[in-house]
Amino acid sequence: MHRVRPYLFYSATRALCSTCLMVCDAKELIEDGKVYLWKRCLEHGQERVLISDDVDYFKLCREVFLKPPEQVERYNTQVEHGCPYDCGICPDHEQHGCVSLLEVTDHCNLRCPLCFASSGPERHSVRSMDQIRAMLDRIVLNEGEPDVVQISGGEPTTHPQFFEILDECRRRPIKHLMVNTNGLRIAREDGFAERLAAYQPGFEIYLQFDGLSEGVSQALRGADLTATKLRAIERLNEVGLSTTLVATLKRGVNEGQIGEIIEFAAQQRAVRGVTLQPIHDSGRNEGADPDRDRLTLSEVRRRVFEQFPTLTPADIVPVPCHSDCLAMAYAIRGEGADFTELTPLTRHVPPEVLLDAGKNTIIYEGDKPLLGEMAKLVFNTFSTAHGPEGATHALRDLLCCLPSVDALPNLGYDRVFRVVIMAFLDRHTLDLRSVRKSCVHVASPDGKAMIPLDTYNIFYRGEEERRALERVRRGVGAGRALPVLSP
Ligand code: SF4
Ligand code: SF4
């Protein structure tokens, strides 16, 4: 009788030792309905990291939501030390940048206990306009017509030439421009929201919004900003400026408030959806324990449909460009006074249509063909009486809007509501199969590279990370892990 191990062996991969950051062998194991990344570093021993608590969804990501990868227009680095030490983008990467990040400053008017950029009032460095132009040019060289450029930081609205940066972006063929902001300036400065709104269409605010209670704000932002955030949203509603609410999720703080956040978002006219970002172990991470506090994408997904039953498991599907880290649900808003009514759309579209229906990217305003394809499918589904039980209301809504769906420009962006779950890899969860599909790329400050955000935070962001990179590169050259130096 052979001994039997208490798990299913799913696959082998390569990952990072979270101590020395050297690449090591790893396995993906399924045990008790959960999926673990199991690693063995020859220097530092074994690690076991939870990567999914939903085996069916894990398999859906890995076996169904697959697409041929779309490539960047050019590679900026060569394969020399091996992934993830050659970013980038190097020729081994498997996905272009759905979102390109332009970080314009390290300064921030907050100092959140959790900030993967380690920003704060004490940091004063800002990128010069020459640097910013070089970074933007790199984004355009790599992406051609970038789908989404997100201006970020630090707090980008504190950059002294913030509006000049927006103008520079507008001179380039960027389809959708976003400003990633904590909203303080929008809330506090008269006329600021109006000035931002003038950059529409194809312009959106990506507003940090973690929940509606003081406790959440204190825990995640170090101050009670509840009233400030509500004021910012009020102003964005007044000027009709497209906004996504972005919630950072931390276990024990706000993972129980996801439904409330989506409910609130649906009631705001300017809000086009919610992005949920579970914390990861990068930058300033005060009081967070990576094992105890880890929220996997699959857990966040489950909590969405538990807390916001309008969306069901069939509505929240993997985004195939990087399905380990991205999931989405689409709904159509009601018209006029019924704008808070959400009719889920994704459940009506079979995976093969989602996979074939157009571009391999997150869908924003510019991607109407895919939206139209989805809407047509919904129409077909209903008209052949295959709609779900009790969908009369949804049927009426959709049939009402379908004539304008055919004339796609009339199905405005303001009718779309989306929920996106966006997870990031850290030194614990990164594996080389997955990180090659990372589709959020950061422009390096010298304008020479585009680097996946996941590896940027580990190896490329600042001096400390660069020192770690040099150490592991020397270790790769020497064929072993070098001693871990204290910073
Ligand atoms: S993460 Fe991508 S760009 Fe970076 S080294 Fe690996 S394959 Fe190359
Ligand atoms: S998380 Fe955002 S708002 Fe908070 S310190 Fe960092 S950059 Fe500033």
Would you kindly provide a brief summary of this structure?
The protein has 487 residues and is α/β, with parallel strands linked by helices. The chain contains 16 helices and 18 strands.
Keywords:
globular; 12-stranded mixed beta sheet; 16 helices; binds iron/sulfur cluster; TIM Barrel; 32% helix; 2 domains
Please provide a written account of the structure.
The protein is α/β, with parallel strands linked by helices and 487 residues long. The protein folds into two domains: 1-52; 99-422, TIM Barrel. The protein contains 16 helices and 18 strands. The strands form three sheets. Strands 5, 7, 8, 9, 10, 11, 13, 14, 15, 16, 17 and 18 form a twelve-stranded mixed sheet that branches. The protein has a four-stranded antiparallel sheet with strand order 1-2-3-4. α2 packs parallel to α3 and α15 crosses α16 (463-478). The longest helix has 16 residues, at 368-383. The N and C termini lie far apart (51 Å). The model is unreliable at 379-410 (pLDDT under 50). The protein binds iron/sulfur cluster (2 copies). The site of one iron/sulfur cluster has 13 residues, from loops.
